[in-house]
Amino acid sequence: MRGADRAGRGRRHRRGPAPVMKTDVGTEAVRALYTGRSDVTLTWQRRSVGARAETETVRRILRQWLPPAPADVVDVGGGNGFFAFELTGTGYRVRLSDLTEALIDDARRRADEQGQRLVAIDVADARRLPYADRSADAALFFGPMYGLQSPADRALALAEVRRILRPAGVLVVESLTKAGGLRNLAHRDPAALTRIDIARFVEDGVIAGPDLPRFYDGHVFLDPDDVAAELTAAGLDVLDTVAVDGPHPLRQRTLAGADPAVVSAWADLALYVGRQRSYWAAANHMLHVTRLS
Questions:
Q1: What is the value of pTM for the model shown?
Q2: What burial letters (b/e) apply to 14-24, b meaning 16+ CB within 10 Å?
Q3: How many Å is the Cα radius of gyration of the chain?
Q4: Which helix (H) or strand (E) holds 112?
Q5: Domain ranges in the chain?
Q6: Regarding the domain delimited by 25-175+223-292, which CATH topology (the fold level of the hierarchy) does it fall under?
Q7: Is there a contact between 141 and 116 (Cβ–Cβ < 8 Å)?
Q8: Residues 6+ apart with CB under 8 A from 268
Q9: CA-wise closest residue to 125 among 154, 151, 105
Q10: pLDDT (tens digit per residue) in 148-193
């Protein structure tokens, strides 16, 4: 494969047969979200076109907190590799993994077409990563925190990424807010509120019920403080918490064709207000920057 070093550099070595990972409804629902070509394409386009201010805000946070290139970075749950390719282009050694084969196939295609050489591009479950202990200086965790509905599964995934990080390694975690989940529901299908299990949503952040928009399958919505508590319990120090999608998350598409200076100005604003706790309920997406304790 031209787009990634398939020799397995930095892979985890095991003795005997690998343990079988239990399949659960949540992970199967995540895979089902990307069954068509349009689903896969939209995943990339959201970062590149549909949420430009948010993407620029994330870039700035990564520039601030990641160790300088050429550091080793693992992008866990990185989809079809938008940030993996950006980091590779700036000199980082990046391994990309995702649960969804369709997204990884697309990442491999993009790697070949663009001639960008990621260290590895792997189909992998975040709860059992195929990488060696202490093999990364930093990691992105942009899917598992909202794709794993069970706190126990999120704890397993955090333990795995902690295992592969070197001492003082940086982990950047993305999550979806509870307020954002309800806001999206009102935007997509207001009548769905009559069909969801409100008690379950309040308890664990899962929007469940009959005939809901497909977006909610396999997702969980969490309060930022609850995310911070899970990260702390996993042995991580929270260094920075930012709401990254601007003051009106559902209107980001209005910036799709905007001048870069306009996008930059909105990213400036997102960084300014996004660190203010009073603003967090207005956000759909949060980033927590952490470091190994």
A1: 0.86
A2: eeeeeeeeeee
A3: 18
A4: helix 101-114
A5: 25-175+223-292
A6: Rossmann fold (3.40.50)
A7: no
A8: none
A9: 154
A10: 999 999 999 999 999 999 999 999 999 999 999 988 888 888 998 8
